[in-house]
Structures are given as structure tokens and as C-alpha cells.
Write a structure and sequence with these properties.
alpha+beta; Methylamine Dehydrogenase, Chain H; 5-stranded mixed sheet; flat; CFA-57; coiled coil; WD40/YVTN_repeat-like_dom_sf
């Protein structure tokens, strides 16, 4: 910060930055494992990848930056920039600390006087040496510096004499800080620094076809380099060892683009310097294939990442025990960052220009790849100011994937180009922005999060948000839309036919908004959705501002300023100038002072409709936007260079101060101030948003923040009394609420206890049934396990016996395997169909029982749920009333606390700012003294350099003579080595011919073994067909018997019920007759007395008819009284029949379970057999594949010999696998034979079980007939 006064009315401090300065390609580095550093505007941002937090410091060199480099281990950053001192231009290097005191400058020195182009820079592994490769006067200069002492260690010039045309990059050896690698077009050499000299090591490698543009050290002996035509080379001692083509689907012809000299030059240069660069490029340019160049290489553990054409990031892994690399993953940038919002037109608007269409179609280009020191994170910087990460970096990369993986955003999605619109809400911590990337974004400045984003198909020119932050107005190329802000997006309320409105502004109350329609201002109501006023300015309007009372407007064009009265729709003041008013407009809180900015760098103050004072910005800056602090009248001025000036007002109160802040790297487009004036947001044409925290020195700000607080001012005065009243009401409501809760609890507990008892009884009944079924199931399982173990033992014994017999017959049976596979497939389909039918029948029976009990359970659960819902509704009502009362009380208390805390915070910040300003003045004086000292040192060093250059030339000539002699001797050695290698290759060819003869013999032997196996497979398939037909017959018989059993069970159940009814009737009838007979015997023992008989008849009538005492007859204590011997015999016969029916039922159930178990066992065995057949088919496919491989190998041996020992080892392994295949096939054929015998045994057992099942059915039919006759006899007797 620079200033013309010592005390600033408003102090700004950057809090958060949304965006990246992407014009600088190599601008993304890791400071540590989880912190990434990148430039944004004229600031450096250190962002944590895990927590998303930011630390920011200013850097003056970012305004003219050429290149930057970060050393994560030493925690330093090197910034190469151009500095201008009067008419002279020089290149300086500055080093900043990133560890203890972040942003502290550790060293600055000049590396070159005069115009030059920085091609590449590098830092050694121990961060002691700093290397620079620069281009000037049609030749390159490589210099090595000891930056901690600002001392030049050595330098060398590289030109066409040394075979250099275009150089691309330099890097230090990862283990030696005196050893460098230099790459370029048809050039790859190594440089050694010794005793103040740089010696380029000679190389005999032929690199005429390689154009190296990027490289990285893989280990101290090898490096990986990328070329301009999509190739990656592994170099050993400057010679290409392995060549990898990273371009897929390459065709013959490729289009070419000019290759520029420097890849790290800045976007903004002076006129003389750009002319010099153009002259150098004309001399050194050549062609490069587009979309194929490997622009970046980053080595990782056991592999490397390479960036191909800026569109694909490819990961290669190293193959063990070799220097070959295999492609494992490929990553691309996502096609779009958000869903396209709803638009009324399917096509683009007619007003959309060609540039806008091309900008939408431009794809993102990946510029820089950064890998963390421990390789936990991999980030990618794109040309559209986005930072992506490789999300699956921790996954296994062993398997090659066909599709490309999509990168994911690390932080928020930033604007991709210039920001045209910016506005902030009042009632919510939200602000909106729009840009030339056709997006509308809603941000939260408290959480620093992007709440919503929508991408549209046409340009977005301007945007404004309602003070309540519930509505926005967006100006598109073809319309102006009023939208509601929803949770999941924006919904259009009304669209107005206004084209290309470049500014929109809501009034302070939000009841109106103004839209610029070329030279007309349209004032629209968002409530009535219609135009209220149309004001004709007469010229194309650039800026509009509302008055504080919302009854007027200020409008400004290129040379005209007008004040409007909306009540009369007339002009109250008009000012026409002879200079352009392109710098913005600002009004104070009382509408007394108006400040306008022009293109001549002046800000003018208008008071009482007259221009009173003028203020000019320093350093020939031109204002681009003005914003006012209402509390103390301070102006914030954004400029075309990206700086922000804080200017004290009014200008007439001398002395006035101008305070400068480094902010953006391009023109500032908007500045907004929050209503509480603790936050300032600025935007610019480079797509970066900056959030500034403010500290106001002296303020006249009142307590009336918003209209909501103003309306509730009277309510605040009576707040203590209302709080006491609400507390008493709250206690009464609590007591009433507790009493009601107790009543409801008692009733609810009674109903709940009754319902729970009922449900518990039903649950116990269901559990008992389930336990019985589980016990039966466990018993069946144990029986099955015993049978299975017995069968398995028999199977193993038979298997061992048959294996010995079938070793001789295996050759003949292999031919029949294919037919057996086809038959097994048919059997599997038939078995699955039958299995489904049997399972569906059993499931239907279980489902009926299950639905009956579930219905009862659901009825009880519904009743319980209804009672619970009633209770919850009552509780919610009381809780809502209680919460409403508590919230009102808490809100009032919190407001008083916040006022006290803000006053305390303001005083603390005031003290901190005083100490900060004192320190800054001291640091400024110290820097001035250091600058003088460095200038004196540089003049002394220039004389020393001239002396050293003469000495270096003499030493260089002597070293070149020695190097040429060494090169001659080395070439003689290489000739002898090549002759020895030719002799070795001849011996290897003879050995390979021998192996070819052996392989042909093995192939013939395998073809002879295949034919008998196929015949055996066909025979076994015929056997399977016969077995399936027999199995189908048995299953049909079983299904018929099952249906017969079901019918018999139903008839038996009906007969039992009828017997039980008749038995009850007979028992009642017998007991009644016995009682009547006893009464008759007792009453009519003496019939001779007529009076007594008459009395006895009356007594019997009164007892059995009038008094309905007949029931006493049915409830006698002794049922056997008066029974005859015939009745006793009938009861005995009935009991006998009941016991026999019960025995028949148990026998029937046991037979059914046995048949079911046998059926399931047969099905399981068939499934095992099918599984074995599938395995045989798979083994046969593998054998045929091996045969094809042998045929291919034989052809290749005939055409070209094997050139490595690995191929010989593979052939020997293939021969060794033939015996394993034959052994496995023998075992499979034995298992098939054993399964055939097991199926025959099961078939015999099934016939035996069916014979026993039919006998039991016949017995049941006889019993049913006897039961019918017995039933008839009982009915007749009754």
C-alpha cells in the first residue's frame, strides 16, 4: 500500500479470492503436501486442498511477471519480472518466504539489463543454485546464480555454432546441483558447472527427428522428454532408449502451427520489447503439430504424468524389471461445469455476436500439472481459470481402462472470463455475479461457497439483486428477466423485451429497478411487473445511480451527466463536458456531493450543481469504477491497471489523502460495499473476485442500518417490559402444558399397554410356529449332511479307483466332450424351468399363510400408529407455541450483545492499524537503503564480468580440443561394440531355429490329442440326453402324486370336521336323554297314585319347559349315568377311528418330506454336474486358445526370429502347461464318469421310493372309505 498521507480513512485487507490468474501458464505449484500456491490478480494465494482455507500476500512483481517457480522443500518462491527505471528496462528475480513469515521478501537481484525473453528457470534440489535460460540477440544465455548471495556463478552463450536452434527447458539433476539438462529442437545435452565455468558435455546421439519441448528427471541417470509430435522418449546419456507414442488413432497428415520461442513470456509487454520478440520469432519459428504436443511431464513413483495437447492427461506406469512404460489412466476436463438453464428460445439470440459463439465453443486447455511432494494430490490448471484434481489418485492403476476419467473441481467453480455484473444483498449474506462466460452465479460471503450457478446460451450483460436477496434481475442479449431465487435454482417471473441492457440497478428499498435501454432509462416495478417511467437521456447511457430517497436517478453517458426527478419525470440538472466520462459515478449519503471520473485521470466533485474541486490519480492511472462509503464519505476508485485507490472526501477539506492498494491484474469492472461496510467486493476483466475486509478509522455511521431496524425502533424501547411479561406467560404455559401432558400420558399408557399385550400374545404364537418349523428344518439338514458325507466318501473312493483305469482311455473320450456340453446346456434350461415351477407352487402355499398373519399384524400396527400420530400432533402444537415465544426473547437479547461486541471489535482494530502503519513506514525506509546498496554492487560486478569473460574464452577453447579427442576415442569403442553385438545376434538366431522345430513337434502332438477327446464328448452328450428324458418322466410322476395327495388331505380334513360336529351333537343328545330318563324314573316310581303323578307331570313341565331348566340336563356331573352298553361301544369305536386317522396323517407327512428331500438332492446333484460340464468347456476353450498361440508363434518364428530371452521363457512355460492341461482333462473325465454312475443309482432309488409312495396312497384311500361309512352310521344313530 502506498499513500500520500499517513492515516487512511478506510483500511482494506484481502480475505478471500475467487479465481486464478490463468494468463501465466506455469502458475500452479505445491508449497507443501496440502497447500497449493497460485497467483490471482496481484496477490499470491496459498490455498489448503483439504480445508479450502486461504492465506494471501501481495507481490509487486506480479504486475510485470515473466515466470515463477516454487521449491516446496525450502518453502521459497522465485518470481522473475521486468522492472522499468526511467527509460531502462531490466529483468529482476525476487525470492519470497512461504514458511515462517509468509510473503516476506528474502532476496532481490537483477539478472539482465535490457530487453530479453525468459525461456526457462530452474532451482536445484537443495535450493542453493538458481538457473536461468534467456533468449536475446538470436542466441541463448544460460546462467547459474547463487541467489542467497546475489552472485553470478557462471554463464555460457548457446547459439547456432553449438548446434542450437530453439531451446525449450532446463532442469537440475535431482541429486547434483552442478549438473543440468537442456532440451530443445533436435537438441538434448547436459551441462556441468565446475569452478566458475559451464561445460556442455558432447554427445554422439542422433536427434534429428525429435523436437523436445518438455522433460523431467526420472532418476539420476535417466530423464523422460516429450516432443511436439506426440512422443515421449526415455533418454539415457542423451540417447533415446525407449520411444512411446501417446497419440491414439494417428493418421498420416497433420496440420501445423508455428512454434514460438518462449512458453513463459508475459501477456503484457512494452512496444519496443514486443517488436524485438517478433523479430526473434521470425528467425527461430518452425512448425509444430497441433493437439499432439507433450507440453508437460511430471514424474511420480513408478511412473509419470504427461499432458498431451492440453486436452488429455495420461498416466504411465513402469513395467517391472524393464524400462518400458504402460498406459494406465487417462483424464480429461469435464465438458461443462453446470447444467444449462431454461431458455425460451431454442436457438441463440440474433444479437449474439460471433465472438460470443466462439467463446462458448472453446474448450478448456490444460496448462499446468502439479503433484504434491508425497503424491497424495495431483492438480491441473486450465486456460479457463479452473483448478481440477485427479480424484482416483489413491486407487489401483494396474488395470487399463478404455474410457477417460473426468477431473473434478478442487475449489469453487470460478468465472472463466471477464465479469460484467456484480451486486450484493442486504438482508442475507449473498451476492451475485455474471460474466462473459454466459453464467450467473450466487455466492455466500460468510461461508465462501458458491450456492448456485446457471449456464445460459446467450451473453449475460448485467445483473442486480433485490435488497432482501430473494429476487434478481438479469440482462441478456435479447431480454431482461426478473427471477426468484429458489433453493435449487432460479425461476423466471417476468421477461421484458429489452435488448443488450448493460446496467441494471435496484432501488434502495427494492420497490423499483432501473434498466438502461441504449439511451432510455426504463423504471420497472417488480411487484406490478410493468414499466412506470421512461426517461430519455439522449445519448448511450453508461452508468445509473439511485438517490437515497429513491425519488430520483443519476445518469451518465460519455460526455453528459443528468439528475432526474421521478415524480415529475424531468431533468433537475444537466452537465455537458468536452472530456469523456468513462470512470464511474459516486454519490454521498445526503445527495449533496456528486463525484464523476473521466478518462484523463481526474475525479471531479460537484456541489450545488457546480464543479468545485478536482483530484488526479498518481502514476497516470485512469479510473474505471467509483463506489462510496456512506458512513464517512470515502471513495473507492478502481483503475484500468487493476489497482484500488481509497480517497478521502470532500476534496475541499485539505489535506486530502490518496491511498493505493495492489488488487487485480486487469481493469476493475465493479466494486460493491456491504450494508454494514465491513466487506468490499471487487471484480475485474480477468475473471477474479476479491473479498476485502475493511476497518474504518473515523465513522459517522448511525444505528439505522436497514428499513427493518427503522420500523422496529419503537419496539426496542419497550423491550424489557415485554420480556418480563413474556416470561410470566411462559411459566403459566409451562404449567398448563405439563398438566395436559400428564393427562395425555395416562390415557396413552393405558391404551398402549392393552395393545402391547394383544400384540405380544400374537407374536408368541407366531414365534412358536416358527420354532417348530426351524426344528424340522434343522432335522432335515442333519439328515442331508449325513447322507451327503456318506455319498462323498463313496464318491472319493470310486474316483480314485476309476482314475487308475481311465488314464489309458482318455485320448478316445476327448472328442465326445463338445456334444456333452450342448446336452448339458439343454438340461440346465429344462431343470431351471422345472425348478421354478416347483418353487412357485411351494411359495404360493407359504404366501397364503404369511399374508393371513401379516394382515392381522398390520391391523394392530395401524391402530397403534393412529394413536401415536394424535399424541405427536398435540405435542408439536405446544412445542411450536413455546419455540415462537423463546425465539422472540432470544433475538432481542442477541441484538444488544452484538452491538456491544462490534464496538469492542472496532476499538481493537483501530489500535492494531496504528501499529501496522508505523511498521510499514520503517520497512519502506529500510528497502530504500537496500536498493542503493544493490545498485553499487551491480556496477562493481559488471567490471568483474568483463575480466572473467576473457578468461572463460581461453579455457573454453582448450576444453573443446580435449573434448574432440575424447569423442574420437569413444567412436572407436562404439564400432568394436557393434561388431561384437552382430556376432551375438547370429548365435541367437541359430538357437531360435532349434526352438522352432521343437514347437512344431508339440503343436502336431496336441492336434492328435484333440480328436479322440471330441469323440468322447459326443458320446457323453448322448448319454446326458437319455438321462434327461428319464428324469422328466420321474418328475412328471412326482408332480401328479403331489396333486393327488393335496386332494386327499383336503377330503380328510372335511371328514374330520364333520365327525367332530356329529360327535358333539351325539354327546349332547345322550346326556339330555339320560337326565330326562332319571327324572322320569324318580318322579313316576309309583303310578298308582293319580294325584302324585299329576304333581310329577306338572313338576317336570315346570322344570323342563317353563323354567327352562333343560340346560341342567346338559351339564350333569356324571356323563356315564344312565348310559347303555351300546352307547359305550360306539364311543370306543369312535376313539379308535380318531387314532387311526392321526397315524395316517403323520405317516403321510413323513413320506412327503422324504420325497421332497430326495427331489432336492437330485436337483443339487444335477446342478453340480452342469457346473462340472461348464468347467470342462472353459478348459477346452483355453486349450484351443493355446493352440492358436502356438500357430501364431510358429509363423512369427518363420518370418522373424525371437529377439529377447523373455520370448524363449514364455515358449518353455507354454510347453510345460501342456502336461498340466492333459492331467486336468483326465481328472474331469473321471468326475463325469462318477457322476453318471451316481445318477443311475439315484434313478434306482427314485423308483423304489415311488413304489412305496403309491402303496401308502392306496392305504389312505381305504381309510377314507371306512371313515365315510363310520360317519354315516353315526348320523343315523343320532
Amino acid at each position: 500500500m502506498s499513500t500520500t498521507n499517513t492515516v487512511s480513512p478506510v483500511t482494506l485487507q484481502v480475505q478471500t479470492i475467487f479465481g486464478v490468474r490463468s494468463k501465466l501458464e506455469s502458475s500452479l505449484f505445491f508449497a507443501d503436501e496440502h497447500t497449493v500456491i497460485y497467483p490471482a490478480g496481484n496477490q499470491f494465494v496459498l490455498a489448503n486442498v483439504e480445508t479450502k482455507s486461504q492465506r494471501i500476500f501481495r507481490c509487486h512483481e506480479l504486475e510485470h511477471i515473466e515466470a515463477m517457480l516454487v521449491h516446496s522443500d525450502a518453502a521459497i518462491i522465485a518470481v522473475v519480472a521486468t522492472a522499468t527505471h526511467g527509460d531502462k528496462e531490466s529483468t529482476t528475480v525476487s525470492f519470497y518466504d512461504l514458511h515462517s513469515t509468509i510473503g516476506k521478501k528474502k532476496r532481490t537481484f537483477t539478472i539482465h539489463d535490457g530487453p530479453t525473453t525468459i525461456t526457462s528457470i530452474a532451482l536445484s534440489h537443495d535450493a542453493k543454485h538458481f538457473a536461468v535460460l534467456e533468449c536475446g540477440n538470436r542466441e541463448y544465455t544460460l546462467s547459474i546464480w547463487q541467489w542467497q548471495k546475489s552472485r553470478l556463478l557462471a554463464s555460457i552463450k548457446l547459439g547456432q555454432v553449438e548446434g542450437v536452434t530453439v531451446l525449450s527447458q532446463i532442469l537440475f539433476d535431482p541429486s547434483d546441483h552442478n549438473y543440468l539438462s537442456i532440451i530443445g529442437r533436435r537438441y538434448c545435452r547436459f551441462a556441468r558447472h565446475t569452478e566458475g565455468n559451464i561445460r556442455i558435455q558432447p554427445s554422439s546421439a542422433k536427434l534429428d527427428q525429435y523436437d523436445f519441448i518438455s522433460h523431467a528427471w526420472y532418476d539420476p541417470t535417466r530423464l523422460i522428454a516429450g516432443t511436439s509430435n506426440g512422443q515421449v522418449c526415455v533418454l539415457f546419456n542423451g540417447d533415446v532408449q525407449i520411444l512411446i507414442d501417446v497419440v491414439e488413432g494417428r493418421e498420416g497428415a497433420t496440420t501445423t502451427l508455428p512454434r514460438t520461442l518462449s512458453t513463459m513470456s508475459s501477456a503484457t509487454k512494452s512496444g519496443a520489447r514486443s517488436a524485438l520478440h517478433q523479430h526473434q520469432q521470425e528467425h527461430l519459428d518452425t512448425s509444430r503439430p497441433s493437439g499432439e504436443e507433450v507440453t508437460s511431464i511430471n514424474t511420480v513413483n513408478k511412473g509419470f504424468y504427461c499432458l498431451v495437447g492440453g486436452k488429455r492427461l495420461v498416466h504411465y506406469s513402469k513395467i517391472a524389471d524393464s524400462w518400458d512404460f504402460a498406459k494406465t489412466r487417462e483424464y480429461v476436463v469435464p465438458a461443462s461445469e453446470g447444467g444449462t438453464a431454461r431458455s425460451l428460445d431454442d436457438e441463440l439470440a440474433p444479437s449474439q455476436t460471433l465472438n460470443d459463439k466462439q467463446q462458448m465453443n472453446n474448450e478448456q486447455v490444460m496448462w499446468k500439472v502439479a503433484v504434491s511432494p508425497k503424491e497424495e494430490h495431483t492438480l491441473v490448471l486450465t486456460s479457463k481459470q479452473q483448478i481440477y484434481s485427479v480424484s482416483d489418485i489413491a486407487k489401483d492403476h494396474s488395470a487399463e481402462s478404455g474410457e477417460a476419467f473426468v477431473l473434478e473441481l478442487v475449489f469453487n467453480s470460478y468465472h472463466q472470463s471477464s465479469i460484467r455484473g456484480l451486486d450484493i444483498g442486504v438482508h442475507k449474506p449473498l451476492f451475485v455475479s455474471s460474466g462473459e462466460d454466459h453464467t450467473v452465479r450466487l455466492w455466500n460471503y460468510e461461508t465462501n461457497a458458491l450456492e448456485q450457478m446457471r449456464l445460459y446460451t446467450e451473453p449475460v450483460y448485467a445483473i442486480s439483486i433485490h435488497p432482501n436477496a430473494l429476487q434478481i434481475v438479469v440482462a441478456f442479449a435479447s431480454r431482461v428477466s426478473l427471477m426468484n431465487i429458489l433453493v435449487d435454482g432460479f425461476s423466471t417471473v417476468k421477461e421484458f423485451a429489452i435488448r443488450a441492457a448493460h446496467q441494471i440497478k435496484f432501488s434502495h428499498g427494492g420497490q423499483l429497478f432501473a434498466v438502461i435501454d441504449s439511451d432510455i432509462i426504463q423504471v420497472i416495478s417488480p411487484l406490478y411487473l410493468k414499466v412506470f417511467h421512461r426517461l430519455n437521456h439522449g445519448q448511450t447511457i453508461k452508468t445509473i445511480v439511485w438517490k437515497q430517497n429513491d425519488l430520483g436517478l443519476y445518469s451518465q453517458s460519455s460526455n453528459c451527466f443528468i439528475i432526474w426527478n421521478l415524480e415529475t419525470q424531468s431533468r433537475t440538472y444537466e452537465l455537458k463536458t468536452n472530456y469523456r466520462l468513462d470512470g464511474g459515478l459516486a454519490i454521498d449519503k445526503d445527495d449533496r456531493f456528486v463525484y464523476i471520473a473521466s478518462d484523463d485521470g481526474l475525479i471531479r466533485e460537484i456541489q450545488n450543481e457546480k464543479i468545485k474541486y478536482e483530484v488526479k490519480l498518481p502514476n497516470d492511472d485512469k479510473p474505471s469504477y467509483l463506489e462510496m462509503f456512506e458512513s464517512n464519505g470515502t471513495i473507492l476508485c478502481g483503475t484500468h491497471r487493476g489497482s484500488i485507490y481509497v480517497i478521502r472526501t470532500p476534496f475541499g477539506n485539505a489535506p486530502h489523502g490518496i491511498f493505493h492498494y495492489l488488487a487485480h491484474s486487469a481493469r476493475v469492472t465493479h466494486i460493491v460495499v456491504a450494508f454494514h461496510e465491513e466487506l468490499v467486493i471487487s471484480s475485474c476483466e480477468d475473471g477474479v473476485l476479491m473479498l476485502w475486509g475493511t476497518h474504518i478509522k473515523s465513522t459517522n455511521k448511525t444505528d439505522k442500518w436497514t428499513s427493518v431496524v427503522l420500523q422496529n425502533q419503537k419496539r426496542f424501547l419497550s423491550l424489557p417490559q415485554k420480556i418480563r411479561e413474556l416470561q410470566t406467560e411462559e411459566e403459566e404455559l409451562k404449567r398448563d402444558h405439563e398438566y395436559r401432558l400428564q393427562q395425555m400420558e395416562t390415557t396413552y399408557l393405558g391404551d398402549l399397554q392393552r395393545r402391547t399385550d394383544m400384540s405380544e400374545n400374537e407374536r408368541r404364537h407366531h414365534e412358536n410356529q416358527i420354532d417348530i418349523q426351524l426344528s424340522e428344518k434343522e432335522k432335515e439338514h442333519r439328515d442331508f449332511e449325513t447322507k451327503h458325507t456318506h455319498m462323498r466318501e463313496n464318491f472319493d473312493s470310486e474316483k480314485h479307483r476309476i482314475e487308475k483305469e481311465d488314464r489309458e482311455r482318455m485320448g478316445r473320450e476327448f472328442h465326445k466332450e463338445e456334444e456333452l456340453i450342448h446336452l448339458s446346456q439343454k438340461m440346465m434350461e429344462d431343470n431351471e424351468f422345472r425348478l421354478k415351477s416347483t418353487e412357485e407352487a411351494g411359495d404360493n402355499e407359504v404366501r397364503d399363510v404369511k399374508e393371513f398373519y401379516q394382515g392381522k399384524i398390520k391391523e394392530t400396527e395401524k391402530e397403534l400408529a393412529s394413536l401415536k400420530i394424535l399424541n405427536k400432533d398435540n405435542l408439536k402444537k405446544f412445542e411450536i407455541e413455546k419455540q415462537n415465544i423463546e425465539h422472540d426473547v432470544e433475538d432481542e437479547q442477541l441484538k444488544h450483545k452484538l452491538e456491544y461486541e462490534e464496538e469492542k471489535k472496532r476499538l481493537l482494530e483501530h489500535n492494531a492499524q496504528l501499529t501496522k502503519t508505523f511498521k510499514e513506514t520503517l520497512e519502506h525506509q529500510v528497502h530504500a537503503l537496500e536498493a542503493k546498496k544493490t545498485e553499487q554492487n551491480t556496477t562493481a560486478q559488471t567490471y568483474k564480468k568483463k575480466i572473467q569473460e576473457h578468461n572463460n574464452r581461453v579455457q573454453g577453447m582448450t576444453q573443446e580440443i580435449a573434448a574432440l579427442k575424447n569423442e574420437i576415442t569413444e567412436r572407436n569403442h562404439t564400432v568394436h561394440d557393434k561388431l561384437d553385438r552382430i556376432n551375438d545376434l547370429g548365435l541367437k538366431n541359430q538357437e531360435l531355429e532349434k526352438f522352432q522345430y521343437v514347437l512344431n513337434y508339440k503343436i502336431d502332438e496336441l492336434t492328435r490329442l484333440i480328436k479322440p477327446r471330441e469323440e468322447e464328448i459326443a458320446r457323453m452328450q448322448n448319454q446326458l440326453l437319455k438321462m434327461t428324458s428319464e428324469r422328466e418322466k420321474k418328475e412328471n410322476e412326482l408332480s401328479q402324486n403331489r396333486f393327488v395327495n393335496v386332494g386327499q388331505r383336503r377330503t380328510l380334513h372335511a371328514i374330520e370336521e364333520q365327525i367332530e360336529r356329529e360327535r358333539r351333537k351325539r354327546k349332547e343328545y345322550d346326556s339330555a336323554m339320560r337326565r330326562i330318563k332319571n327324572d322320569i324314573l324318580t318322579e313316576f316310581s309309583d303310578v298308582s297314585d293319580p294325584k302324585r303323578t299329576k304333581d310329577a307331570v306338572g313338576h317336570l313341565y315346570q322344570k323342563h319347559v317353563e323354567n327352562d331348566n333343560a340346560r341342567s340336563i346338559y351339564t350333569s356331573s356324571d356323563p356315564n349315568d344312565g348310559m347303555s352298553e351300546e352307547a359305550i361301544a360306539q364311543d370306543r369305536q369312535r376313539m379308535f377311528l380318531e387314532r387311526t386317522t392321526a397315524n395316517l396323517k403323520t405317516k403321510l407327512s413323513s413320506d412327503l418330506s422324504a420325497t421332497k428331500a430326495n427331489r432336492m438332492r437330485i436337483m443339487n446333484e444335477n446342478s453340480l454336474l452342469l457346473q462340472e460340464l461348464n468347467n470342462l468347456r472353459e478348459e477346452l476353450r483355453i486349450v484351443r486358445g493355446r493352440l492358436q498361440d502356438y500357430e501364431v508363434a510358429r509363423q512369427t518364428f518363420g518370418e522373424r526370429g525371437v529377439h529377447s530371452t523373455e520370448a524363449l521363457i514364455q515358449t518353455l512355460n507354454a510347453d510345460a502347461g501342456n502336461y498340466a492341461i492333459r492331467h486336468r482333462d483326465n481328472e474331469l473325465m473321471k468326475e463325469i464318469h462318477n457322476n453318471q454312475q451316481e445318477i443311475l443309482r439315484l434313478r434306482q432309488r427314485l423308483t423304489r421310493t415311488q413304489a412305496g409312495y403309491k402303496a401308502s396312497d392306496q392305504f389312505l384311500m381305504d381309510v377314507d372309505e371306512n371313515d365315510d361309512t363310520a360317519n354315516v352310521s353315526i348320523i343315523k344313530l343320532a
